[in-house]
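Quick one, tokens below:
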């Protein structure tokens, strides 16, 4: 495995490269989750999985498995019910000792959600395949169209390793946002959506007042793999400007790609930031909440 967490849980990998995963195929402890998805074509990931996937992998659907019920006020991809997710993981053959590897075809945008959710349930042995499905295919990794028949797992929930921030905390931080504030709201969306110039998914354009933009793809090299931990640390430390990770809340459009920034921070040894799972789509559900447009926080 090419890169490991710099702190937190020694020996538990954050990302895994293609060669390392290939060497682990067939290992009793390994469980692989295919979470390919397209926000504009929700059935595409499942279709792709049925055609070809990494041997032994199961399929997790963003809407059906990795998100909860929408109320109209909790965002487009609210967190799933914890016990429901535990049961899904058991059905996928995951044990409390399993090494879980998640992959997608979107540079880790959806696989990072799996990484965060398992850590939210207290499971430290979870990694994202660096480069995802494209890297696997390019390297000539074996593929299969057969869905595995796995024995039921014994996965159990343990104390959370990741934290979710509620809307009340985000409102409070937004109201007190200032360059000298000890708290930081971080928006992982592309700059055009953050600035309100090109909103394609939500009915209102703009960003939460006080939130600073860090596009999730800045975590990657041009080939779609994660930057080295030392480089990520320098970039995030500049962004945090002396703040501790525990004083950072990361959000995006619906709480999915924000997990990519959280994974990158973890890889950089800056653990402790929280996820605002409802994100922008929850923020705008209440028209009384303020909206800001433009490049300034």
């Amino acid at each position: 495995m090419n890169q490991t967490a710099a702190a937190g849980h020694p020996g538990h990998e954050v990302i895994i490269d293609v060669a390392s995963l290939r060497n682990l195929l067939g290992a009793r402890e390994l469980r692989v989750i295919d979470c390919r998805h397209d926000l504009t074509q929700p059935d595409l990931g499942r279709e792709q999985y049925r055609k070809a996937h990494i041997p032994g992998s199961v399929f997790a659907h963003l809407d059906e498995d990795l998100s909860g019920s929408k109320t109209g006020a909790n965002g487009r991809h609210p967190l799933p019910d914890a016990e429901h997710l535990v049961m899904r993981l058991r059905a996928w053959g995951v044990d409390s000792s399993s090494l879980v590897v998640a992959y997608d075809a979107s540079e880790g945008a959806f696989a990072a959600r799996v990484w965060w959710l398992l850590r939210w349930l207290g499971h430290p042995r979870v990694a994202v395949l660096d480069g995802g499905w494209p890297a696997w295919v390019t390297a000539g990794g074996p593929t299969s169209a057969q869905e595995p028949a796995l024995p039921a797992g014994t996965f159990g929930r343990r104390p959370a390793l990741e934290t979710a921030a509620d809307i009340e905390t985000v409102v409070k931080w937004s109201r007190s946002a200032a360059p000298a504030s000890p708290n930081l709201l971080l928006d992982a969306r592309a700059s055009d959506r953050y600035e309100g110039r090109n909103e394609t998914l939500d009915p209102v354009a703009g960003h939460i007042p006080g939130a600073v933009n860090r596009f999730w793809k800045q975590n990657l090299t041009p080939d779609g793999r994660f930057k080295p931990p030392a480089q990520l640390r320098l970039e995030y430390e500049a962004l945090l400007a002396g703040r501790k990770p525990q004083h950072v809340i990361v959000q995006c459009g619906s709480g999915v790609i924000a997990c990519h920034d959280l994974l990158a921070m973890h890889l950089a040894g800056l653990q402790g930031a929280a996820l605002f799972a409802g994100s922008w789509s929850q923020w705008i559900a209440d028209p009384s909440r303020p909206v800001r447009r433009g490049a300034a926080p």
